[in-house]
Design brief:
2 copies of one chain form a homodimer.
Chain A (H helix, E strand, L loop, with lengths): L6 H15 L6 E4 L5 E4 L2 E2 L6 H7 L7 E5 L2 E5 L7 H5 L5 H8 L3 E3 L19 H11 L11 H14 L4 H25 L5 H14 L3 E2 L4 E3 L19 E6 L1 E2 L8 E6 L6 H20 L6 H19 L6 H6 L57 E4 L2 E3 L2 H4 L2 H6 L6 H4 L7 E3 L2 E5 L4 E3 L8 H9 L1
Helix pairs in contact in A: 7-8, 7-15, 9-10
InterPro entries (chains A, B): Aminopep_P_N, Creatin/AminoP/Spt16_N, Creatinase/aminopeptidase-like, Pept_M24, Peptidase_M24B_aminopep-P_CS, X-Pro_dipept-like
Family (chains A, B): Belongs to the peptidase M24B family.
Enzyme class (chains A, B): hydrolase
């Protein structure tokens, strides 16, 4: 973290505060959080500041809080302990930090208790901090509890701000996207020399670490792409395998990238792999081409379902009319998740607030299999950043399920499907910004065409 | 994690249980812990199982507990949810896990409450788990609270086991050491092409990730070696700088490596850097040469202090008799930490129990500056693994302190010291096993001589 005063950061933060002040007439206190212990208290996980706090301070401060009231910013944090310089180096003191973020006032943490009246907050994830929040505000502030009353009002106000990315946010999101793209290229280039998944992952994360960033979520780098959140990396790579890599970089101030590509270990897709890849890519391209203000995100999801169903009919894997197949959820046998989600300071942006951010007010999750995993259901607006990530998976737990087999007996050509056994999982994911006129794919520098992917692997 | 039944794992675990049963006559329940949330509940830090649990199960299971009683092993965990196969893949069920670890009985988690009577435990770090521990045992089990009564007895019994590494442990520790050595070599080789610290760190962690391991603590890779726990990586590398890298690998089942080397960015130590480096190396070598059963670890610390004081007198930085200088803590101006610590499943092994493991019964920490940071004060015994890590640092917070300046006015040749301004921090650390006769340096494959280090950087 290079700490220096920049007028653009100060202006960005002032503007965010002012817009918040236009929406709520009570003070808000946001905590940064503290480190979480790993195997013993002094051995902690890398610190990640709370995203709402980051949005209004731009700095990953530890053990700090801010009070936002009528556009004013008050910083509460303690100066470093005398001992701390030995272990952690000379750290900027409270006054210096206050200057960098443009705070109006800076006070020690102990004074925060004098300023809690009528204040709303949002729960931080670590127990030490939410305990402190609960004590100071004299009510339970729990990360798994839905916000109520003024906390709910605050959450809705912050959501309305964070949904629409300002220039300060976009500058960071573009940095995250650029490093994410480089990481994927490095992963592709490392594949032909790799023996196990972990070596491909290492080549990708090296790029992220070298750029002084972190991963925005635990990387998925696997030959078992059918496991959606696979976190195993020990499998050996076989020439006929596909690697599915879902890896994203996060900037020092917390802004996330999130990209998936799928490539052949041997550098060349088999004809069956290529057939399915092109269907997923067609869904990806069709959805992205439709991204523009006013479009319902759920309609993009349904479009992807239809394109995938159509493709599978053309390949002879599904039988029937694509629209009808989507009606009876046949596409979800192979595409059982949503088309994507919001992206910002969190990789599923603001998911700490449950579906409050993802779902337009008055809408709730469907219990329809397939739609139930859709994390975003809002009309698109300029400044929103979403992922578009269709996929095709052969999940044994789904396809071998007796009920599924009988329900879809006549819809799936099971015998023909067995010829596509070398396709366990394919996903193609990009980060797409809704603009005034249409869209801007932040991760467009990473090719998607099968032949381009092959070139990157063989380079 | 490759899960397969191995008779050697089963035997190792049985032996550990039997030795525990020889020490305590009440049951013990150990929890594995659960994931800690990062910025929202579904985005978690990489899971790290509790070390005491790992010692008796050998597997990083999530949300599991074991009950150890009279040499018997009972496993409590739930089978994966039906949904889980979609997101996390087909996981081995409770019965399969029980077979792999040689459990006598396997039961769902809900049955654990029937088996808590008179049982001792050790607090796990994550709040969700210590809350569960406290509820089930009907007493506060907190990671920051010293264990009492049977919990204390259990802690002491486990310490006596974990202090002396068995063959199963050593096999893992040697793996961690080997990968740690390779990571350091990669860091050295990457330096001449690197512009910032993060790029050197990336080269090192790539090796660890590629071996499907994790770092055993947050890496220190810095040109500001004088900051003991520096976790910043953004500084640019200048030709005259030294890089201090304190980086260790941890195996899949939790066993740690911990190594530090210091090398010149430009590939060649300056004469002042070389002078100080050789003093630190002399202290390192002298301590390691003394490691053998019966030796007091604190005496190794004092030996390092004396060798460093001697060296600094010879260089003209300190003035006086080395023994006298150590008496008045003059060495601690430049070497303000302890000579090392226990190493095992934790990088500071069993530090979750405070000083119970590090300090022989009846001994407590000194409040002497210098000795107060000594984490280990026991006579060495065969099977103990310790780090030896002397250093030299110019910490502005110490050396510019007015009291220090006046107290040590005649002891330090401040003017002469200023010629060594290009030495901000040097540390050399290896992992040393106490054997029956003497010692075995697990990380000996990584050179320590200045000229060898230069060769590795310039290779």
């Amino acid at each position: 973290m290079i700490l220096k005063t920049s007028s653009s950061l100060i202006e960005t933060l002032r503007d965010r505060r002012q817009r918040l002040a236009n929406l709520i007439d009570f003070p808000a206190i946001l905590w940064s959080g503290t480190t979480s212990p790993r195997n013993f208290p002094a051995n902690v996980f890398p610190f990640r500041a709370n995203s709402h706090f980051l949005y209004f301070t731009g700095l990953p401060l530890r053990n700090a809080a801010i009070r936002l009231s009528a556009g004013k910013l008050e910083l509460f944090m303690d100066d470093p302990q005398p001992d701390s310089a030995l272990w952690h180096g000379e750290m900027p003191d409270r006054e210096e930090i206050a200057q960098i973020i443009g705070a109006d006032v800076a006070k020690p943490m102990a004074e925060l208790e004098l300023w809690t009246e009528e204040a709303a907050t949002i729960a931080v994830q670590d127990a030490a901090t939410w305990t402190q929040q609960s004590q100071l505000l004299n009510r339970w502030v729990l990360p798994l509890k839905s916000p109520q009353d003024i906390d709910l009002e605050l959450a809705k106000a912050i959501i309305s701000l964070r949904l629409i990315h300002d220039d300060g946010a976009l500058a960071e999101l573009r940095k995250a996207a650029a490093v994410t793209v480089e990481a994927h290229k490095a992963g592709m280039a490392a594949t032909t020399h790799a023996q196990i998944e972990a070596q491909v992952r290492a080549a990708m994360e090296q790029v992220i670490i070298a750029n002084n960033m972190t991963t925005s979520y635990n990387s998925i780098v696997t030959v078992h792409g059918e496991v959606l959140h696979n976190e195993q990396y020990h499998h050996s790579l076989q020439p006929g395998d596909l690697i599915l890599a879902d890896v994203g970089a996060e900037t020092e101030t917390g802004w996330a990238g999130d990209v998936t590509r799928t490539w052949p270990v041997g550098g060349k897709f088999s004809s069956t792999q290529r057939d399915i890849y092109d269907i997923v890519l067609a869904a990806h391209d069709a959805c992205i081409a439709k991204v523009s203000p006013g479009v319902e995100y759920q309609d993009l999801h349904l479009l992807a379902c239809t394109v995938i169903a159509e493709g599978l009919v053309n390949l002879g894997i599904l039988q029937g009319n694509p629209q009808d197949l989507v009606e009876i959820n046949a596409h979800a046998l192979f595409f059982p998740h949503g088309i994507g989600h919001l992206l910002g300071l969190d990789v599923h942006d603001m998911e700490d607030l449950g579906d409050l951010a993802g779902y337009e007010e008055g809408r709730t999750r469907s219990n329809h299999f397939g739609l139930s995993y859709l994390r975003l259901n809002r009309p698109l607006r300029p400044g929103m950043l979403v992922t578009i990530e269709p996929g095709f998976y052969q999940v044994p737990a789904i396809l071998n399920h007796a009920n599924v087999r009988s329900q879809y007996q006549d819809v799936v050509n099971w015998e023909h499907l067995s010829q596509f056994a070398d396709v366990r999982g394919i996903r193609i994911e990009d980060d797409v910004l809704v603009t005034q006129e249409s869209r801007d794919v932040l991760t467009a520098a990473l090719p998607t065409q099968a032949s381009q992917i092959e070139d990157l692997v063989c380079r």
